[in-house]
Amino acid sequence: MNAYIDAANLFHAGESIGATIDYLKLKSLIMQNRVLVDLNFYDMTDNSPSNRSFFSKIQGFGYNLKTFRLRGYGAQPAQEKKIDSQIVADSLVDGLLDNKFDVAVFGSGDKDILPAIEYLLQRGKQVEIMSFEHSLAWDLRKSGAKIVNLTEIVGQICRI
Description:
Blueprint: E1 2-6, H1 7-15, E2 20-21, H2 23-31, E3 38-45, H3 49-60, E4 64-69, H4 83-97, E5 103-107, H5 114-122, E6 126-131, H6 138-141, E7 146-149, H7 154-157, E8 158-159
Parallel strand pairs: 1-3, 1-5, 3-4, 5-6, 6-7
Antiparallel strand pairs: 2-8
Helix pairs in contact: 4-5
C-alpha cells in the first residue's frame, strides 16, 4: 500500500472546520494493519525555520517528504503549483510501472487527482480517498474509489 498526502488540501479543509490534523494519528488510520510501502507527504515550503521544524517532525513520523517552493508569476502573489500533478505522476509510476502496491490511499479531495484514480482503478488497483466531506470534489465521489470521510472521524485524527 502506498499513500499520497496533499498536506495543503487536508490542512485547509481541516482548518475550515476548526480542526488541526495530527499526522501521526492520520498515519495510523492509513495503515490499519496493512503493509505500507511508501507514505508520501506533499507540501509547499518557504524554507523558513518553522517550515523546517514542521517537516522534520513529519519525517520523524515516517513520511517521505516531497516539498515544492512557493512561486510567484509576474505580479501575481506566490501560490501552490505542481503538487497535484506530482501526486498523479508518482502514483501512476509507483502503481503501474513499478507495481509497488495493490492499494493506493489519497489524502486529498481535489479533483485534479481524478485521472490517476480512474487509471489505477481500471488497472485493478484498489483506491481509497481520505477527505473531509465539504472539500471532496463531486467527481471523486463518483469515481468508484472507496471514500473515507474524515469529517465523520475528525476526533480520531485531529485536535479540535
